Amino acid sequence: MHTQEMISTHPLMKGKTDEALIHCIEECYDCAQICTSCADACLGEPMVQQLTLCIRLNLDCADICAAMGSVATRRTGSNDEVVRRMLEACIAACRLCGDECERHAAQHEHCNVCAEACRRCEQACQQAMHSMGAWH
After folding, report:
1. Would you tell me how many other CB atoms lie within 10 Å of the CB of residue 78?
2. How far apart are CA 23 and CA 25, in angstroms?
3. In this structure, what CATH number is given to the domain that contains residue 100?
4. pTM metric for this prediction
5. DSSP track, the chain
6. Is the pLDDT confidence value at 18 over 90?
7. How many domains does the chain have?
8. Which residues constitute the signal peptide according to the record (predicted)?
9. 74 φ, ψ (degrees, to nearest 5)
10. What H or E segment, with its residue span, contains residue 37?
């Protein structure tokens, strides 16, 4: 991805970037795409009614991850409180979606892939939160 390259060219960044936040942005966008795809795959399954919660959590997680990626990408001005709250929401959405997808992972490979993406994104958001000093 070109996230670091782009953000480092921002006039206010002067070539500096927060590696944890860059990784978080990339994982958020990746997770958003995978969750959207998993929801669509769930809709194609014969037992779609049994996957209703999974679909709902996939779509919620996808929206939250995409929004997190967008908010974290903006470098003009400062909105640390919103970024922290978005990170908290993203961590929760990824945890819940990952837990639900894990319940279906043995029957549906798309849920296995999605659960793994959610775990990576959750961890990247936690690392970004830590790098912001939110745990201190």
Report:
1. 10
2. 6
3. 1.20.1270.360
4. 0.87
5. --HHHHHHTSTTTTT---HHHHHHHHHHHHHHHHHHHHHHHHHTSTTGGGGHHHHHHHHHHHHHHHHHHHHHH--SS--HHHHHHHHHHHHHHHHHHHHHHHHHTTT-HHHHHHHHHHHHHHHHHHHHHHHTTTT-
6. no
7. 1
8. none
9. -70, 125
10. helix 19-43
The residue written with tokens 């990824």 in the block is: 94
Distance of CA 126 to the CA centre of its chain: 11
Q: For residue 131, what are the CA distances in angstroms to 18, 48, 110?
A: 8, 40, 31
What 81-84 contacts at long range (C-beta under 8 Å, 24+ apart), as own/partner pairs, is 83/132, 84/129, 84/132, 84/134
Residue 89 is part of which domain span? 18-131
Q: For residue 5, give both structure tokens.
A: 């390259």
